[in-house]
Amino acid sequence: MSRLAVARVHAHALQANLERARALAAPARVMAVIKADGYGHGLERTARAFASADAFGVAAIADGLRLRAAGFRQRIVVLSGPDAPGDLAELRRLDLEAVIHHDSQLDWLEAEPAGVPLRVWLKIDSGMHRLGFAPAAVRAAHARLAALPGVHPEIVLMTHFAASDEFANDRTARQIAAFEAATAGLPGPRALSNSAGLLGWPAARGDWVRIGGLLYGQSVVEGKIGADFGFTPAMTLATRLIAINRVARGERIGYAGAWTCPEDMPVGVAAIGYGDGYPRSAAAGTPVLLRGRRVPLIGRVSMDLITLDLRGMPDADVGDEVVLWGGGLPAEEVATHAGTISYVLTCGLTRRVLFVEDAS
Ligand SMILES: *Cc1c(COP(=O)(O)O)cnc(C)c1O
Questions:
Q1: Centroid of ligand 1 to alpha carbon of 32 (angstroms)
Q2: Residue 147 gets which letter from DSSP?
Q3: What is the mean pLDDT of the chain?
Q4: Mean predicted confidence (pLDDT) in 182-211
Q5: Which residues line ligand 1 (CB under 6 A)?
Q6: Cis before residue 27, ω within 30 degrees of 0?
Q7: What is the pLDDT of residue 1?
Q8: Which of 8, 135, 230, 320 lies in the 20 to 30 Å Cα band around 159?
């Protein structure tokens, strides 16, 4: 079987989303977070679309290497910094910036002879309890960095929110207060917010915002989609209908016979499955778009194929395009049916999917 799954990445949507984020964040600067291959949209492709961002954020030095090799000269921040002492030379060679979140990284920096000044972002754990210095350890860590000739004198102070998508509870307000107390009096720009922080927590605007999801048109705010905040989905995932079969009442569809036909009915088969990154957890009832209309998935998602209830689509034809997510069918809605978030969907597409850039 030839593979028909295509991810169309909309360059203009990416650019418009960056402009929208900029307008919301102003006067703060915007780091475009393009880790995980630009949330699955393509590293170099998204970097091109976000060329006017004030910096790029990546999760791996290898991403910085790819961006430099492709000719990008922008500031690039490695969001978890060096993972081993040998990474410091690589960061300097590639002119990458490092998040410093742990004493072990300070030890490596102190053991390194002074080199080209490395720009660092000091990460403070204001309550998420993943990466970062505890508030009580921040001043000592800052002093150690500030004393190093191999560290650029402008140290950015950053933290990350655990629940900024929950506008109604006070966990983010508490994190903001903990960050402010831990950094009071220290010099340097402040960087607190991710996408949801930008939307919901103006007190956390600071000097930099680090934006991922919204740049791809995606929201993680419960019950909201990117479009609710003025952002446009940047990917359309589509495939084609490769069969329409009439199946009799009482017959079971697909693996484990998980779905039973309530009547004689047309069942469509579309060429996409978990081998392409379409989530196996997508439950019966998950919508797809056929001729612009929502059609429910039935049965289990298999590796290469999904099955669709075509009772509402008597005019459907083999060869019709089936949209899995994109304009008209937000990835957030599909993610809800699959028990996950939209970031997981776009990040999870496999190499079997053909990526094409679409000027719209
Ligand atoms: C991924 C990441 C972001 C971006 O988060 P979004 O919710 O996608 O905006 C920001 N900051 C850090 C440290 C991250 O790891």
A1: 9
A2: T
A3: 97
A4: 97
A5: 33, 35, 79, 160, 194-195, 210-213
A6: yes
A7: 47
A8: 230
Q: What is the spatial distance between Cα 319 and Cα 304, in angstroms, rounded to a whole number?
A: 16
CA dist., res. 299 & res. 305, Å (int): 11
Candidate from 210, 211, 343 with most ligand 1 atoms within 8 A of CB, to mutate: 210
Q: Which long-range contacts (CB under 8 A, 24 or more apart) does 306-309 make?
A: 306/269, 306/270, 306/272, 306/273, 306/278, 306/282, 307/253, 307/254, 307/259, 307/267, 307/268, 307/269, 307/270, 308/241, 308/267, 308/268, 308/269, 308/270, 309/265, 309/267, 309/268
Q: Say what percent of the chain tops pLDDT 70.
A: 99
Token pair recorded at residue 281:
């957890």
Considering only CA atoms, which of 163, 164, 143, 169 is closest in space to residue 155?
A: 143
Active site residues: 35, 255
Average pLDDT over residues 202-213: 97
**Topology of the domain comprising 235-358:** Lyase, Ornithine Decarboxylase; Chain A, domain 1 (2.40.37)
CATH superfamily assigned to domain 11-221:
Alanine racemase (3.20.20.10)
Which strand (E) or helix (H) includes residue 239?
strand 235-247
In this prediction the pTM is 0.97
Using the Cα atoms of residue 133, residue 134, residue 135 and residue 137 in order, give the sign of their dihedral: negative
Q: Is 250 left (phi over 0), alpha (psi -120 to 50) or beta?
A: left
Residue 2's pLDDT is what? 56
Do 231 and 18 meet the contact criterion of CB atoms below 8 Å apart?
Answer: no
- Give the pLDDT of residue 115: 83
The answer to whether the CB of 287 falls within 8 A of the CB of 329 is: yes
Domain residue limits, the chain: 11-221, 235-358
For residue 344, name the pLDDT band (cuts at 50, 70, 90). Answer: very high
